[in-house]
Amino acid sequence: MHKNASRVQEALRAAGSDAQVVELPGSTRTSAEAAAAIGVEVGQIAKSLVFMVDREPVVAVLSGSDRLDLDKLRRLRGATQVHRPDADAVRAATGFPIGGVSPVGHGAPVVVDRGLAAYEVIWAAAGTPNAVYPTTFDELVAVSGGDVGDVRVDPPGPASATEGA
């Protein structure tokens, strides 16, 4: 097992999880790749995105089918600025490459979007672009020490009755 995947496995065990890291032959770098490799829907992928919130790295975890709302993350963290760091800064903050950032095993604060609670089983990255582990929403929050919040872009509302008329 890759050293990053082993680090995630150890972090899961230390947090009391029985989840087992799985290394897949194909890439799980993107949510679509991960869903295809595992055989689940994209929404079940817990993508971990790193942002600099003011000057602190924060890992935001949300459904693979959702996009992050930077303003919601900024407000939730009580910050003035949020921006996406480059790949080197992501690795420096977490020890993981983009496409393999795990919600555990790094020490950065974590925010878990409550939209992931809609899924019975979710799959999270485990330190490399081809390692993942299954978990539940409650376990993900517990093992990551994450704060639960609403950080996804709001889905469009229903069309009005007069729209297009």
Give the gist of this structure.
This protein has 165 residues and is an alpha/beta fold. It has helices at 3-14, 31-38, 70-77, 87-94, 137-144, and strands spanning 22-23, 45-53, 56-63, 82-83, 110-113, 122-125, 131-135, 147-149.
Structural class: alpha/beta
The portion of residues assigned to helices is: 25-40%
Our count of domains comes out at 1
CATH superfamily: YbaK/aminoacyl-tRNA synthetase-associated domain
The helix tally amounts to 5
Give me the secondary-structure topology.
Elements: H1 3-14, E1 22-23, H2 31-38, E2 45-53, E3 56-63, H3 70-77, E4 82-83, H4 87-94, E5 110-113, E6 122-125, E7 131-135, H5 137-144, E8 147-149
Parallel strand pairs: 2-6, 3-5, 5-8
Antiparallel strand pairs: 1-7, 2-3, 2-4, 6-7
Can you offer a commentary on this structure?
42% of the residues are buried. This protein has a single domain, classed as YbaK/aminoacyl-tRNA synthetase-associated domain (YbaK protein). It is built from five helices and eight strands, in the order αβαββαβαβββαβ. The longest helix has 12 residues, at 3-14. It has helices at residues 3-14, 31-38, 70-77, 87-94, 137-144; strands at residues 22-23, 45-53, 56-63, 82-83, 110-113, 122-125, 131-135, 147-149. It is globular. A hairpin with a 2-residue loop joins strand 2 and strand 3. Strands 1, 2, 3, 4, 5, 6, 7 and 8 form an eight-stranded mixed beta sheet that branches. It has 165 residues and is of the alpha/beta class. The model is unreliable at 159-165 (pLDDT under 50). The chain starts with a helix and ends in a 16-residue tail after the last strand.
